[in-house]
Amino acid sequence: KGAILRDMAPHLPAGVHFVPAHPVAGTENSGPDAGFAELFVERWCILTPPSGAEPAAVERLAAFWRLLGAKVEIMSAEHHDLVLGITSHLPHLIAYTIVGTADELSQVTRSEVLQFSAGGFRDFTRIAASDPTMWRDVFLANKEAVLEMLGRFNEDLATLTRAIRRGDGETLFNQFSRTRAIRRAIVEIGQDSAAPDFGRPHPELPDVPLPRPYAAED
After folding, report:
1. Who's near 84: CB < 8 A, 6+ residues apart?
2. In whole angstroms, what is the distance from residue 91 CA to residue 172 CA?
3. Which of 21, 30, 63, 106 is the most buried (most CB within 10 A)?
4. Is 155 helix (H, G, I), strand (E, B) or coil?
């Protein structure tokens, strides 16, 4: 949002109150046809008013988003860009990279990646299906925060690489335990579901018992 405020500032007439808003909601689909009635319900919308913005104008916009069911948070554009750099922008960059790496494998291996993809990889492909034009612009507009977060990520990745190379199971275990606690905290504050497999629907098992080819014969 910092780049948007900088670009808009010279063009705003006197008396016009420009307050950027970022609804943290959506799917990998884009455009009006991808919307649905509950899109913003219980989701955060971040307002980033510039310094000197009229409080009444900010409150009018906040009231608008609350009517759509959103929860409203107000922060500076700089802080917004840093927070979203790690919670949204970096994950998208990682997803594009992982799926791109799979695509560059040999034809035989790539077909097996698609056939035997586990839930984690499928989640990355969903993120990587997001609008490439929009995300190209996001990365370039927020490049300072993205590069900072990417630098920290590369440092952590290098630490894990060294641990695997050296057979350092303790470092791996400590890192995985710490990140597991973060996942639990996200569920506890209601930002995601604790349902198995992220609440995805699964076909019900048939009423007839499944065959047991290895069961002992009577």
Report:
1. 22, 24, 46, 142, 145
2. 21
3. 21
4. helix
| In contact, 106 and 114? CB cutoff 8 Å | no
Largest CA distance in the chain: 89
**DSSP character string of 22-39:** EE----S--SGGG--TTT
State the amino acid at position 118 in one-letter form: A
CB under 8 Å to 119, separation ≥6 — which residues? 197, 198
For the stretch 48-73, pLDDT in tens is 999 889 999 999 999 999 999 999 99
Angstrom distance (rounded) from CA 27 to CA 130: 8
Contact 90, 65 (CB under 8 A): no
Cα(168)–Cα(114) distance, rounded to whole angstroms?
Answer: 31
- Alpha carbon distances (Å) from 78 to 3, 52, 88: 9, 15, 15
Domains and CATH numbers, the chain: 1-75 (3.40.50.720), 77-193 (1.10.3660.10)
| 118 phi-psi bin (left φ>0, alpha ψ -120 to 50, beta other) | beta
Distance CA 14, CA 64 (A): 23
Query: Using one digit for the tens of pLDDT, what is the confidence trace for 168-196?
Result: 999 999 999 988 887 777 767 666 655 55
Runs of H (alpha helix) within 116-142? 119-128, 132-141
Q: Which two tokens stand for residue 72?
A: 């409203």
**Rounded Cα distance, 85 and 147, in Å:** 9
